[in-house]
Amino acid sequence: MAKLSKGKGTNKQRDAHSGRPSSNHTSSHRRAESKHGANKNGKSFPVKLAMWDFDQCDPKRCSGKKLERLGVIKSLRVGQKFQGIVVSPNGKTVVCPNDRNIVEESGVAVVECSWARLDEVPFSKIGGRNERLLPYLVAANQVNYGRPWRLNCVEALAACFAIVGRLDLATELLSHFSWGLQFLELNKELLEIYQHCTDADSVKEAENSWLEQIEKEAQERRAHNPGDDLWLTGNVNRKRNHNVTQNGVSTGADTESIWEQGEASEYETEGIENGEKAFQKSVEYDSLGNEITLSENSHLEDSGNDELSEVYDSLGNIVLSNEECAVTIGTSKISTEGDVADHSIYANIEV
Ligand SMILES: C[S@@+](CC[C@H](N)C(=O)[O-])C[C@H]1O[C@@H](n2cnc3c(N)ncnc32)[C@H](O)[C@@H]1O
């Protein structure tokens, strides 16, 4: 595991050595110190929320930081473990309805870091005994809209709540973000399926049959509408003035409104503008509408400073970056053909 680099992200490492929270987050730390994180208005979130924050993302675009500003999430130090569910790329099994008691009694934590810098996260020094992946879900945040698995922190927390049957908590948390409830809309059908499962195996089974189904539908569309399929014209999830589709099914929403609504201070930043410019550059899409090549200098519109040029398979997983590489998803690798043997995610990116 690579060491945290100097500069960004070093705050939290110093904390680990001193054993004290750094001064820049002490106040919010204190603010969130009541039972389940009472915020500055004295309101508390009913369940404990926590995060390890590696300061790798633009604070204006970072959902974890926003939750911290709201006083509903507590920052954890490197070296501190968490008793509740830890929704993390380091998980080995998926969140399931049977996790509900742990969620309600001990809470949920996430790892606030950049997707491109996961190898800098000292996973062995964080986490806990209940680390979990999330099953297939599609991001609705303005940075990674339409990308499967790549949720931001608030979406990951909300997904966990929804899967264990606490849609009320998911809704409450997401309602702090102008785009937030879109996440529940976009994933409504799938979340209901997961909610009806029991253990992690049953969630995996449900996920696999969903993935097989969408793959089959994509093949049928290709067979029946060669050259005349909206799906084949590009990633409609990520273009303006098209209906938003989830796995080829229109949700009726329009991406224009999603990109333009509210939260200017969070998202109308240089980063997002760069991200949008990237759409105008040369891009290609696979049969499921995911971006599979990017022009040499295009930016990735991810939170944080993710600068890799990535290639996605038909399910939205990274299969190539600048140099030829393989991506390990959980315990298995995804080939450049997009075969996915196991649909857990990105424990390691081997570049
Ligand atoms: C990589 S960070 C990026 C956060 C982003 N900067 C933001 O604004 O929230 C997202 C975190 O959410 C959780 N997460 C998101 N998608 C996940 C998934 N599919 N499985 C497990 N954890 C996931 C993990 O804790 C992960 O580290």
From TrEMBL:
S-adenosyl-L-methionine binds at residues 63, 111, 134, 149. Residues 1-11 have a biased composition (Basic residues). One of its GO terms (cellular component) is cytoplasm. It is found in: Cytoplasm; Nucleus. Residues 85-211 form the 16S/18S rRNA aminocarboxypropyltransferase Tsr3 C-terminal domain. GO terms for molecular function: rRNA small subunit aminocarboxypropyltransferase activity; S-adenosyl-L-methionine binding. Residues 47-81 form the RNase L inhibitor RLI-like possible metal-binding domain. It comes from the Eukaryota. Its EC number is 2.5.1.157. PANTHER family: 18S RRNA AMINOCARBOXYPROPYLTRANSFERASE, RIBOSOME BIOGENESIS PROTEIN TSR3 HOMOLOG. Aminocarboxypropyltransferase that catalyzes the aminocarboxypropyl transfer on pseudouridine at position 1191 (Psi1191) in 18S rRNA. It constitutes the last step in biosynthesis of the hypermodified N1-methyl-N3-(3-amino-3-carboxypropyl) pseudouridine (m1acp3-Psi) conserved in eukaryotic 18S rRNA. This is 18S rRNA aminocarboxypropyltransferase. It comes from Lachancea quebecensis.
